[in-house]
């Protein structure tokens, strides 16, 4: 099992920045990729960004490109999501997720952290 714990959410004004963290513990040797997802109020969960552990490739949804940066600290089994130029449409519960190799589904999820951007 892999346990994921997010932190760093909060309330910020439009144009501001936040940095989310996700620490993985447990059987982390099996992690192939980690990602960030979000669920805006009244909407479905959506992909935000992801990275593969072995190649360091990163992927972003179009709406956050140029504003969000995913980084990681392998030694700490932690990924970060630096969010700049936030706008009210970024308001959501942000979730960290992890998966092993050979699957498109993310079986491991954190508890989520609320990000609220005021206009």
- The share of residues in helices is under 10%
Mean pLDDT: 95
Extract low-pLDDT stretches.
none
Order of helices and strands: EEEEEEEEEEE
What is the count of β-strands?
11
Span between termini: 40 Å
Shape assignment: globular
Radius of gyration: 14 Å
Task: Provide an overview of this structure.
With 119 residues, the protein is mostly beta strands. It contains no helices and eleven strands. The termini are far apart. The model has no long low-confidence stretch (mean pLDDT 95).
Summarize the structure.
With 119 residues, the protein is an all-beta fold. It has no helices and 11 strands. Strands 2, 4, 5, 6, 9, 10 and 11 form a 7-stranded mixed beta sheet that branches. Strands 1-3-8-7 form a 4-stranded antiparallel beta sheet, with no helix packed on it.
What are the defining features of this structure?
mainly beta; 119 residues
Helices and strands in order, then pairings?
Blueprint: E1 2-7, E2 10-13, E3 18-26, E4 33-39, E5 46-52, E6 58-60, E7 68-73, E8 78-83, E9 92-99, E10 108-109, E11 113-118
Parallel strand pairs: 2-11
Antiparallel strand pairs: 1-3, 3-8, 4-5, 4-9, 5-6, 7-8, 9-10, 9-11
């Amino acid at each position: 099992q892999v346990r994921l714990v997010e932190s760093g959410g909060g309330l910020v004004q439009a144009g501001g920045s936040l940095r989310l963290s996700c620490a993985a513990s447990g059987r982390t040797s099996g992690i192939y990729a980690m990602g960030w997802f979000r669920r805006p109020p009244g909407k479905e969960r959506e992909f935000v960004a992801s990275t593969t552990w072995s190649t360091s490739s990163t992927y972003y949804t179009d709406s956050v490109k140029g504003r969000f940066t995913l980084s990681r600290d392998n030694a700490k089994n932690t990924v970060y999501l630096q969010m700049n130029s936030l706008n009210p449409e970024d308001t959501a519960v942000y979730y960290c997720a992890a998966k092993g190799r050979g699957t498109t589904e993310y079986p491991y999820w954190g508890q989520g952290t609320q990000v609220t951007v005021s206009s």
